[in-house]
Every structure is written in structure tokens, then in C-alpha cells.
Amino acid sequence: MEFNNIIFEQENQIGYLKINRPKALNALNPEVFNDIEKCIQSIEKNADIRVLIITGEGKAFVAGADIKDFPNYDVNQAYDFAERGKEVFRLIENLEIPVIGAINGFALGGGLELALACDIRIASENTMLGLPEVNLGLIPGFDGTTRLTRLIGKSNAKYITMLGEGINAQYAYELGILQKVVALEELMTEVNKIAGKIIKRSPKSISIAKEVINKSAEMNLADASELESKEFGKLFGADQIEKQEGVAAFLEKRKPNWNK
Description:
- 46% of the residues lie in helices and 16% in strands.
- The chain is globular, with a radius of gyration of 19 Å.
- It is an alpha/beta fold and 260 residues long.
- It has 2 domains: 6-199, 2-enoyl-CoA Hydratase, Chain A, domain 1; 203-251.
- A hairpin with a 2-residue loop joins strand 1 (6-11) and strand 2 (14-19).
- The two termini are 30 Å apart.
């Protein structure tokens, strides 16, 4: 499948989605959203892909939304643009397979919001993250306020949003936004290493665990606990081949074969 604003490649069981507008620091616009949506929909139909890695071309992951379009928006158009971005990012968040953000440089505004839609975030040491929308008289529009608040708490989210300044990768790691920070030249090696480890785990377990975590984050503790028990119990069904293989492999002291 050909795209104008992204590059998609597959190597073995790993998919690579690269935002490809380096001259615009990979800024997001409706055309980029359309390409991402088509790519994600294609990945959903590809059972061979077990992990998706999202990164950016050049010196930015994504530097934000394409501001040059903003003067043309009225209230309704701006609302639709925000909703469109959220719709596409939710496709990423709800994709059955794990999504790793390989954050290489600027991840500002919509770029940080895209990163927050990923399951795991690994960044290079030169990365700068932030929500600078208040400098434009705006606020984040692609679930930046909601996802960031749930991830690091209200006060930290307010600090980052109200100051509108970038934070470095190390501080973002300390806040819990990032899972790991590595040298730029080691970024893709580290991300591929993590993806390779995930691929060795049960595909169904990974998918269900992701779904339970996503859903439980929106539930009260009692309902979230009940959801976990139900999904745990379902995996003991007679038709659950991966559970049977995983347990048998453990007891037989061998590596599981998830392709049975």
C-alpha cells in the first residue's frame, strides 16, 4: 500500500510506521491522519504482524499539528480536526497488538499526544516533549489533557500544559511518560529488542492484557478487578490453545511454540 505522508514497512513480525514529512517536522494534518488510519486498518487485517513501531523521519518524531492550517479553521472545523485526530489515535490505542513509540527528537503538541496513544514509549536522549498549545492561545486537542493526566496525575499534567515548555527525555522518564531513554544511535536497536521479546510471548495473552489494561483504566477498582477475573478465567476454556501450550511448555521445561 502506497502513502503520501507515511512510510510503512514490515520485517518479519514487526511493522514500522514512520511519519514522513521531515521538512514540516512531521506535523500532523488531515492527510497524515488519513494515511495513518489506512495503515492501521491494513495492519488489523495482517495476522503476521505482532508488534507495531511508530517513529518519525528526520530530527522529529512529530513536532505537533500543522499550524499553518489553523487560520482557516472556524469553531466547527477546529472541533472536527480535534475529533479526527482523536479518532485516529484511538485506533492506535485500541489496536490488538502492542504499539511502541520510538521517539526520535521533538514530540510536541500532537506529537506527544501521538506518543501517549502508544502502549510503550522509548525515546532518544535528544528528545524534547511537551504541550506548547497555550503559547498559541490554544489547549491540546487530541486527548493530551486526558491521557497525560491519567498517566502522571493532575498536578504534573497541569505543570506541563500550563507552562507550555518542553521537557527533556530524562525528566519525562522520571515522570513516567517514557519507559526508557537511550542514545539516538541506539534507539531502533533498543526498540527492536523490546519488540523481539514481546513476540516471544503469547499473542492472545498480550492482546487480552492490553485490552484489560485499557478498559480498567476507565473503571472503578471493583469493576476493573471483576473484568480481570473474567478474562483470566476465559483463558482456561477448552479451546484456548495458547494457554494449553504455554502451561505444557513450562511443565515440560521447554520454550512454547505459539504457532501450533
